[in-house]
Amino acid sequence: MGKLTAAYDKFVDFLLKYKKIILPLFLMVLVLVPIVIPDQYVIRVLCLIGIYCMLTLSLNLIAGYMGQTSMGHAALYMMGAYFSGLLGSKFGWPFWITLIFGIIGGAIGGLILGLATMKLSASYLAVITLAFGEVMEAVVLNWTSVTNGPLGVRNIPRPNLFGWELTPTNGGFYWLMLVLVIVAVLVSKSVVESKFGRAVRAIKEDELAAKLMGVHTAAYKVKTIVLSGAMAGMAGAFYASMNRYIDAATFSFDISMTILCIVIFGGLGSIPGMIVGSTILIAFPEVLRSFADYRYVVYGLLLILMMRFRPQGLLGGLSRRPYKLPAGVVRPGEKTDGDEGKQVK
């Protein structure tokens, strides 16, 4: 197992070293997928993977960087879908407007959840998020005058770009999914590398120490959950338009657990890990249809093996690698290039 881990780490180091070459090539391949493989089923599965990429990236802000467990993330996903779907179905609003309201809907859910949990942590926060998910599902099922109750929302319009309707068949939805995933990645990366991200990570490492250093931990918790909710709402709006029908059963507790499993499997605090984890765990039931009914058993076994042999997840722990210093700067005790006899103090 030690040799396997070493080989895996070398592979990751290779990807990181040549990421400026590999990433553009990888994106080019992804863009060409609908042209090379114009299969509607394959495109739909890839769109589903993209939805979970957005959802796991959003939960990663809470669980990976802030170190808090959320077991009701599907509720934020649902709020984005219903805000977008209802406006499109009942009022005929275009997708691009309902997408914004879907993001706002997820952010509102995040604000409510954040205000309710800003002074809680650990198991207390997990229980509250679980209860929040159940409450939101009950609201959707019983507020029939608005949400149509168990019958769900039908005939949700699809995006229209300069007269071209985006559908899974013509590849338009796939390209839209790529754009939204890239937006989610850029937002996550920008947050993590900012002052805000450093404060959030400080809360994860030691909340009391962060308070003593002047970090308003409660405010940062609320802001992080609101941002996470906005990203989940974006995924919900996209799903509602792609599926054209939503109901409360679509956003059950199982969805929250699937999102959480992917975050742990991919690696807490790892943006690439969310994408790789979503690809593996969402594609698995589709590739092996005969085992689809046992996917949660497989998820459980994968998590057990992961906790035993690689507790940081597939691509977790990259942040523990030595920080890359600017050109010409070396760490104390290291020899400089061209002057092996001198050391930087």
Characterization of the model:
This protein is mainly alpha-helical. It has a domain at 41-253. It is built from 14 helices and four strands. A two-stranded antiparallel ribbon has the order 1-2. It has a two-stranded antiparallel sheet with strand order 3-4. A hairpin with a 2-residue loop joins strand 3 and strand 4 (339-343). The protein is globular, with a radius of gyration of 21 Å.
Main features:
single chain; 345 residues; mainly alpha; 14 helices; 3% strand; disordered C terminus
How are the elements arranged and paired?
Elements (H helix, E strand, L loop, with lengths): L1 H16 L1 H18 L3 H26 L7 H19 L3 H23 L4 H21 L1 H4 L12 E2 L2 E2 L6 H21 L2 H11 L1 H6 L4 H27 L9 H14 L4 H17 L7 H15 L25 E2 L2 E5 L2
Antiparallel strand pairs: 1-2, 3-4
| Secondary structural class | mainly alpha
Q: How does the major sheet shape up?
A: 2 strands, antiparallel
**Radius of gyration, rounded?**
21 Å
Strand order of the largest sheet: 1-2
Beta-strand residue percentage? under 5%
Q: Can you tell me the residue ranges where pLDDT is under 50 for at least 5 consecutive residues?
A: 340-345
Helix content: 55-70%
Average pLDDT metric: 85
Sum up the overall morphology in one term: globular
Termini, distance in Å?
39 Å
Which H/E pattern describes the elements?
HHHHHHHEEHHHHHHHEE
Tally of DSSP helical segments: 14
